[in-house]
Amino acid sequence: MRRGTGLIALGSTLAYYNHLSTYAYVVFGDDFALARRLSAKTLHYESISICTSWNCGVSYAQAVANGWLLKDAGGAYVRPYGDEYLPDVGNSDFQQAFVARALSVLRRHPGVDGIEIDNIQTDIASITGGVYPAAYPSEQSFADAEIRFVAVVGRALKRAGFYVLVNAGGFTHDRGFDEGRVTNAFWRRLAPYVGGLMNEYWMQDANHLTRLMDDSGGGYMRYWSGWQRLVRTAQSGGADFVGVSIGTRSHLRTMRFGKASFLLDWNGCGGAFVYTVTPAYTSRVSPWNEAWTADLGTPRGPKRLIATKVWRRDFSKGTVVVNPTKRPVTTTVGGRRHRIGPSDALILTR
Predict the structure, then answer these.
(1) Whether residue 224 sits in one domain with residue 311
(2) What are the residue ranges of helices labelled H in 18-91?
(3) Domain span including residue 140
(4) Residues of the chain where predicted confidence (pLDDT) is lower than 70
């Protein structure tokens, strides 16, 4: 098993991917029989959303029967995506129902280590078309309800010996989002209750996957250092960090930049970088590539600044150098000179 690597394979797709025995984390959909045999930390995909086509957390029928589906001020159901509905995550009965179902699923499938919960948002309006539920008419009120939900679920599953990974992010118009301050603050509130925190579209533009972050300042995608801080934020709160980048099999720069940005503050224990080939999580195309899966061993010390905004960190089996600037840089590692392009990284093994 290579520490610091992860795979997400949703639906019934897990069997299509190779190197399954090598990943440290595997988030999966329906493939319980295969997942339970893996040495990885295996996590069943769940969501706070209520779906009509499949049960993601709590069934649609149960949610309707108990009045757990939220409505907007006009009385219409709040809909995040497609066939999904937004539940009342602050309702204690809903929270207990979510816990009960998660525990039931996990206990029926011994060998599975826990769950991943999707769609925990800094601002729920980022996935509902700008709509807030009448019961939670602001960004802050729904975020507070999410924290209560995660606290109840996380504590209950932890007590039962299971691991909870939460995908927590989402765009918000609040001051401080561009710099990553809003997300870092949200993560500090979540970290005590979970095993790990996930950042999707790690170091890339969700709308233009080949556009990678830099650290020049002046707007979103220009504050690499603020978003890279999420690794430390998670770990300092007792949670693992999981970063996910998306692209094609040929986007080696995205692979390098995402993995190396993760490694700069990785504690050498839990957590992972995940690279997934488009269409994300269901492509059935193996993302495995030494550009991001290379084994560098354990950290030899903290990252250090080797030029303006250029960082290096040494490991027992290699070195990473990250250049989050808008200009190329040249550095020497092991007596050899290497040129690193803008928003790119060097990952060397020895």
Answers:
(1) no
(2) 32-35, 60-66
(3) 4-293
(4) none
